[in-house]
Amino acid sequence: MMSLLQNTRKPVGLGGKLIAKGMNSGTHAKLAVWGLRHLSIAPDAKILDAGCGGGANVKRLLEAAPKGQGTGLDYSDVSVEETEKVNRTAIREGRCRVVQGGCEFSSI
């Protein structure tokens, strides 16, 4: 059985769905809103949220950039599904896409 802490890293299953939804509310959301207040976002910004979790920050960033484009990236299929739900309108409008995948960094 996966621990709650492990499920925050890569949400899976029912517990992961609850984690992804929880990322969009509570303390996590309050911290994100506070942080975004300190950014200056151009109305036509190109946005990448790597590790988009529950998708609320993609939505917030697109609201701050009403003529912008956004991409949410996460390696959890549960997070991708939740991000697509939260950003359904922006996806329909062609302003948002959500991609399942990861990022690898290597030293040079």
Structure description:
This protein is of the alpha/beta class and 108 residues long. Helices cover 48% and strands 15% of the residues. It is built from 6 helices and 3 strands. It has helices spanning 4-9, 13-23, 26-36, 56-64, 77-86, 88-92, and strands at residues 46-50, 69-74, 96-100. Strands 1-2-3 form a 3-stranded parallel β-sheet. Strand 1 (46-50), helix 4 and strand 2 (69-74) form a beta-alpha-beta unit. Helix 3 runs parallel beside helix 4. The radius of gyration is 14 Å and the shape is globular. The termini are far apart. The model has no long low-confidence stretch (mean pLDDT 87).
How is this structure best summarized?
The longest helix has 11 residues. The protein has 108 residues and is of the alpha/beta class. Helix content is 48%, strand content 15%.
Labels describing this entry:
108 residues; alpha/beta; three-stranded parallel beta sheet; 6 helices; 3 strands; 48% helix; globular
**Helix-strand sequence:** HHHEHEHHE
Helical content (DSSP H or I, runs of 4+): 40-55%
Which sequence of strands runs across the widest sheet? 1-2-3
Please indicate the percent range of residues in DSSP E strands (runs of 2 or more): 5-15%
Radius of gyration: 14 Å
Q: What would the average pLDDT be, to the nearest integer?
A: 87
Give start-end ranges of low-pLDDT stretches.
none
User: How far is the first residue's CA from the last residue's CA?
Assistant: 38 Å
Biggest sheet descriptor: 3 strands, parallel
Q: Supply the helix-strand structural class.
A: alpha/beta
Number of strands: 3
Overall 3D form:
globular
Number of H/I helices = 6
